[in-house]
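[recover] target loaded
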């Protein structure tokens, strides 16, 4: 496993947060793995992550301020070894774009009982962002552990 792409709808809340969590775990454990994030829609291209996601990242000791929204592309992103959808709709949309099913998984399948990671943008409060962060952190740690990249 050399690369993982995290995907949500707009690439301003969940997937950049997942990318940031993964980057921190990778850095702390000196792993050689590339991570990125994208959205299935083109609504937020070149926008920074939403303030709630940036704030919850800061509260947990890292920054995602450098990230910018981008749209998922089967042409540019098929190079990733694993594509992680943050919810069931994202999963279906990724497959509909033509990505190979064996590359696509849901983050909820990694220690979250298959649950969708809800879109915190609808909450608009830090409690919702914190709950989403906790799900993402647990899922990313379990994903890396299952791939034998991180000790559980």
């Amino acid at each position: 496993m050399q690369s993982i792409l995290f995907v949500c709808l707009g690439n301003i809340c969940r997937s950049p947060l997942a990318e940031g969590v993964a980057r921190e775990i990778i850095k702390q454990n000196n792993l050689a793995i590339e991570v990125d994030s994208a959205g299935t829609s083109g609504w937020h291209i070149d926008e920074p992550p939403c303030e709630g996601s940036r704030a919850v990242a800061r509260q947990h000791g890292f920054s995602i301020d450098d990230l910018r929204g981008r749209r998922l592309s089967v042409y540019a992103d098929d190079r990733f070894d694993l594509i992680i959808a943050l919810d069931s709709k994202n999963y279906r949309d990724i497959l509909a774009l033509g990505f190979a099913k064996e590359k696509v998984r849901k983050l909820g399948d990694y220690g979250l009982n298959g649950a969708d990671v809800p879109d915190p943008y609808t909450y608009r409060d830090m409690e919702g962002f914190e709950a989403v962060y906790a799900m993402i952190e647990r899922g990313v740690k379990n994903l890396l552990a299952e791939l034998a990249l991180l000790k559980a």
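[recover] notes: The radius of gyration is 14 Å.
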